[in-house]
Design goal:
The structure holds two protein chains of two kinds. In chain A, about 25% of the residues lie in helices and about 30% in strands. Chain A is of the alpha/beta class. Chain A has one domain: Rossmann fold. Chain B contains 13 helices and nine strands. Classes of the chains: A alpha/beta, B alpha/beta. At the A-B interface, helix 1, helix 2 and strand 7 of A face strand 1, helix 1 and helix 12 of B. Strand 7 of chain A pairs antiparallel with strand 1 of chain B, so a sheet runs across the interface.
Chain lengths: ~200, ~290
């Protein structure tokens, strides 16, 4: 059974853990670089991206995370996790991994009063996904190797680049585990040699 | 597209988990808080310690001040309204505040009724001393709960009491058989459907933060080890001698709350914590936690 590491510095770690378990996987929290050893996939949860980036910097996680993801570790980032994965932001500066070739805009839909849920068409899914957007970002620019998987009003809200999947919304807040199942499938189909770092 | 749903309101609180929400009275403090890693700021006119020492009627902050704070940071901004003052809440909603705290720290506007929070798109957080109070607030539409503690004292004892009480009452519900739950709901004055939900799940249906009297990294970690989802720090940061390092240290101690070595490391050389107040020296009339029911 695949074990998914969930970055547990701040945010909705428990919801991702529950979703992974509901999808048939195991999970472990990641707070230190050594916690990355032996995991088969990685989740960067929702939360406050400024807080998560700052803590990741102080506790020496930036380079180990970059290396593990560059090495092919299947990775899902949701909301703050998407911002953390991205190469840059439209406004301001904060700590980002820069492994996902997109530019994001934070709080792009507005403040909490504009937060919403909606049925979203996701490429490859046979029925819509109930997507919960909370002070959510969207993607402004996508690089060459990035596939847009879902959009809201033409703004990309879910993208894939090789082993990385990122969404503006929170699949962990609903009981629909199709996206977490994709992560587990990627973890299980990964060449075992890749895991021996 | 649906806005203001339960999932959207409670969801923002889920995103704040494992984080620190800091009281600020101006843009400069808000930026210090954001820089230190706060997950949100609470915009207010005076921190609780000053409300306590200066007295008078404490109300919602000046909208200009709230706007200034909203414009200065990218993290969520919360604002406090008086218990039962639904017009102050309407004003905060119109300003685009991300969470409204219906707070006992301000002077109550209604001694019988709390705000009907279902009527708002903006989510609410409310204080509670025990499970019954928490479930009454959730029944009125609160999407997040915090312990009341005793704000502005720098003394964590009341927050600990409230958290332990809530944990004990939740545990007790989980051991009851179905036939005992109505009596439990009656005795704690809580909505029956919420009592059943807690009995089945063993936890509150919304996120529960600690608040009231948290002044040090160890206080924050104590509340996390007692099972809180995160902490509010009111007077504890900007009433200390050196706010920025203390703010950073409290943020780190909330993430690494179960690692004493890290708490020891971040607690070094922070300067003086705010001056605390011993509970026995407060008259009953000076207690903020008994406001609301």
């Amino acid at each position: 059974m695949a074990t998914v590491g969930v970055l547990a510095l701040q945010g909705d770690v428990r919801e991702h853990a529950n979703a992974i378990q509901a999808a048939g996987g195991m999970w472990t929290p990641v707070r230190h670089p050594e916690d990355l050893d032996g995991i088969d996939a990685l989740i960067l949860p929702g939360g406050e991206s400024t807080t998560i980036g700052r803590l990741a910097g102080i506790y020496g996680l930036i380079e180990p995370l970059r290396a593990a993801i560059a090495d092919g570790l299947p990775t899902l980032g949701t909301c703050a996790g998407m911002i953390f994965l991205a190469a840059g932001m439209m406004q301001g500066e904060q700590v980002q991994l820069g492994v996902l070739d997109v530019i994001v805009e934070r709080n792009a839909f507005g403040r909490q009063n504009e937060s919403f849920e909606a049925n979203l068409e996701v490429a490859g899914f046979d029925r819509p996904f109930r997507a919960v957007f909370i002070r959510a970002p969207w993607v402004v620019k996508v690089g060459g190797g990035v596939e847009v998987v879902a959009t809201v009003d033409d703004h990309p809200v879910m993208v894939r680049q090789g082993n990385i999947l990122a969404s503006s919304f929170h699949p962990e807040l609903t009981s629909d585990v199709r996206i977490h199942t994709m992560v587990l499938q990627a973890a299980e189909s990964r060449d075992p040699r890749d895991g021996e770092r | 597209m649906e806005t203001g749903t339960d999932r959207v309101k409670r969801g923002l609180a889920e995103m704040l988990k494992g984080g620190v929400i800091m009281d600020v009275v101006n843009a400069e403090q808000a930026m210090i808080a954001e820089e230190a890693g706060a997950v949100a700021v609470m915009a207010l006119e005076r921190v609780p310690a000053d409300i306590r020492s200066q007295g008078g009627v404490a109300r919602m902050a000046d909208p200009e001040k709230i706007q200034e704070i909203i414009d200065s940071v990218s993290i969520p901004v919360m604002g406090k309204v008086r218990i039962g003052h639904f017009v102050e809440a309407q004003v905060l909603q119109s300003l685009g505040v991300d969470y409204v705290d219906e707070s006992e720290v301000l002077t109550p506007a209604d001694e019988e009724n709390h705000i009907d929070k279902w009527a708002f798109t903006t989510p609410f957080v409310c204080g509670a001393r025990n499970l019954g109070e928490a479930l009454r607030r959730i029944g009125e539409g609160a999407a997040m709960i915090r312990t009341k503690g005793e704000a502005g004292t720098g003394n964590v004892v009341e927050a600990v009491r409230h958290m332990r009480t809530m944990n004990r009452e939740i545990r007790a519900l989980t051991t009851m058989e179905e036939g005992e739950l109505m009596t439990a709901a009656k005795s704690m004055g809580a909505p029956f459907d919420l009592v059943r939900e807690v009995a089945a799940s063993g936890r509150l249906p919304v996120v529960n933060f600690a608040a009231g009297g948290i002044a040090t990294p160890a206080d924050a970690a104590l509340m996390m080890q007692l099972g809180c989802d995160g902490v509010f720090v009111g007077s504890g940061i900007f009433k200390s001698t050196d706010p920025a390092p203390r703010a950073r240290a409290i943020v780190e101690s909330v993430t690494f709350y179960d690692t004493p070595e890290t708490i020891a490391k971040v607690s070094r050389g922070l300067g003086e914590a705010m001056v605390g107040i011993e509970m026995g020296t407060l008259e009953d009339s000076e207690l903020l936690q008994t406001r609301g029911w």
